[in-house]
Design brief:
CATH topology: UDP N-Acetylglucosamine Acyltransferase, domain 1
CATH architecture: 3 Solenoid
Number of domains: 1
Number of helices: 0
Helix content: under 10%
Radius of gyration: 17 Å
Shape: globular
Largest sheet: 8 strands, mixed
Structural class: mainly beta
Number of strands: 23
Strand content: 35-45%
Strand order of the largest sheet: 3-8-11-16-19-21-22-23
């Protein structure tokens, strides 16, 4: 594996063979929050402890600037391809009140993420907590994945929605209606 720019807590990461993560990539298995730069000067911030794991399969590739931030578990299966500037995080900054700076509210909505074998994640994609992207799925550029994407489908948009599915009988991509 070519070394990414930042690796936080590598003892909580399992990386397969033939992995190539491009420049400015970051792998962060976050065990505590906040870091020193996110602590409120008077101590009025949320302190949290996590037990994260990041699992990356064999032959995973990322062009550049892939950010993977785990508080619980992120699994990236074999042969997944990431374009540049992809953000994958299984937790979000808290928004429980509109009266406190969000960086002091801790991490919430923590839920595992799985990206299936052979998937292609396009340029500038964001994958949010609790999502499973099925094997051989395609996520179009600039998409925000907020819910599961079935195997062998193409999802685009913000929020991402499935627009095509692979049809085994005709061996072609078939458009999916808005109500499907």
């Amino acid at each position: 594996m070519l070394a990414p720019r930042v690796v936080k807590n590598p003892d909580r990461m399992f990386v397969g063979t033939g992995v190539k993560l491009g420049p400015n990539s970051e792998l962060k298995a976050t065990t505590t929050f906040p870091g020193p730069w996110l602590r409120h000067p008077d101590g009025s911030h949320v302190d949290q402890v996590f037990d994260p794991v990041i699992r990356i399969g064999d032959r995973v590739t990322a062009t550049a600037s892939l950010q993977v931030v785990a508080f619980h578990e992120i699994v990236i299966e074999d042969d997944v391809m990431f374009a540049a500037n992809v953000f994958v995080s299984d937790g979000m900054h808290g928004v429980s009140t509109g009266e406190t700076a969000y960086k002091y509210q801790g991490i919430s909505n923590i839920a595992p993420i799985r990206i299936g074998r052979g998937s292609w994640i396009g340029q500038n994609v964001v994958v949010l907590p609790g999502v499973t992207i099925g094997e051989l799925a395609v996520i179009g550029a600039n998409s925000v994945v907020t819910r599961d994407v079935p195997p062998q489908s193409i999802a685009v948009g913000a929020p991402a929605r499935v627009v095509k599915r692979w049809d085994l009988t005709s061996q072609t991509w078939v458009s999916v209606g808005k109500d499907d």
